[in-house]
Amino acid sequence: MKILVLIKRVVDYNVRVRVKPDGSNVDLDGVKMSINPFDEIAIEEALRIKERGEAEEVIVASIGSDECQQQLRTALAMGADRAIQVSCDEALQPLSVAKIAVKLAQQEEPGLVILGKQAIDGDNNQTAQMMAALWGRPQATFASKLALADGKATVTREVDAGLETIEVDLPAVVSTDLRLNEPRFVKLPEIMKAKRKPLAKIPLADLDISIENNLSVQSYAPPPQRERGIMVDDAKGLVQELKNRGLL
Amino acid sequence: MSKILIIAEHDGSQLNPATAKCVSCAEKIGGDIEIAVFAENGAAVAEQAAQIAGVSKVIQIDDAKFAHALACVIAPEAVALAQNGYSHVLGPSSTFGKDLLPQVAALLNVNQVSDIMSVQGSHAFQRPIYAGNAIIDVTAPEGLTVVATVRTASWAAAANGDSAAAIESGSAVAADPGHTRYVGTEGASGDRPDLQTANVVISGGRALGSAENFDIIYRLADKLKAAVGASRAAVDAGYVPNELQVGQTGKIIAPEMYFAFGISGAIQHLTGIKDAGTIIAVNKDADAPIFEVADIGLVGDLFQIIPELEASI
Q1: How many CA atoms lie within 13 A of A183 on its CB side?
Q2: What does the pLDDT look like over B233-256, one tens digit per residue?
């Protein structure tokens, strides 16, 4: 079985993102870029499945300009077998990403597709669900546990009510939540080795899909700030203050 | 004029309050507001939905396949329904809505507007990106169905009206794809108020130090009839189950009063509480970022302060 993992190059999660003063976008000049953290968890999960002997190959794919090869190489250094870059300079909205993902799935015929539940830039939380709907295959979103057996996946999902378990037939689309695993650190020799692993570049036009960027962003603004309040000295002072405000 | 379809979230017998929040958002969009209830036996839920002021009709679609909310089962039905002249399809930005609505959007060949915070026009919305560090004005195209999730912390629940809306029954039209089976759910801390809808939330962080120590949080919560929350650090450390996590990747909440005990205030946690009415922070570290946003701050040892609070409230 092959596993297809989709990853996105995003601003590193440690970067405090700010809106440009003119409201035209957020300021990403010179900031550190990384694999979307949820996607890194997706890579790790795929590798663990392969290491358990339940999959033969882990293919990692990303959509973007040549810069995203950096993140694909990192995924290869983690242990993925080969990489695919769908080359595209435009920022795509989730529906288009999902359509590309379906094309790749049709070409590669993976038994499992794993991707992050959301990218930490757009915070859309849509691509996995859209891909599953368009591919006509099951989805298991927000996964915190994943087990494979007999052509099925049993997935524990982090939902508002607690932990929900579902069983899906393979092939299926799984989106990762934070507690699925802790991604490994990449070792230097692996980075050297990753340079020789195959990375195929496919122009977006070759996939013959219609691009649906039908939402348009008019402006960006910083969020309203909460003001710093008052300090009290002890529990008694806190209770008094809450009573003064009519909260107790 | 807009015709808005809201997909009800429920547990089979109770309508989730998030649905009434979607009604508030729909009222701001303006137009006819209808609620679809997909359930095994949705009579009770449909009656609750019909009580919400501003709702003109409830469509109750009963089928055994809706016994558990599976996106792959509900999405084709919602799409079939949406094609009856609806301009908008809305659902809450809960794990239920996040699981389902993107499927609906994809099958209608549109992108989804995620997490609507405010409405500027029938096709113009504000939503957060970058963990709430930026708010964008986004416009959906006229002439295509708008599919969106509603950020529940940004909206008050619509109240019940004087008269109930009509309940119409519909029937399921799509075949169950049969590839997805519900196994079970564990969790849900019994009698305490629901974290997402509670007026008061008491949260604990890593400083609690252990699952046992979290008892003092539960005790104070019981005294205040509050829900219990936690920081990601406390959940990752195994002190409390995941469904208590408050923050960007957990629950985004807007209680009237929020207590943060031993929570430093990482940006991802603050994203989850910035719509709270009054934030109260107790932390040993006077420089903790939580104090930047707290309305009332107290520097001190939570193990000393919580029992004192419990005794004097």
Answers
A1: 24
A2: 999 999 999 999 999 888 999 999
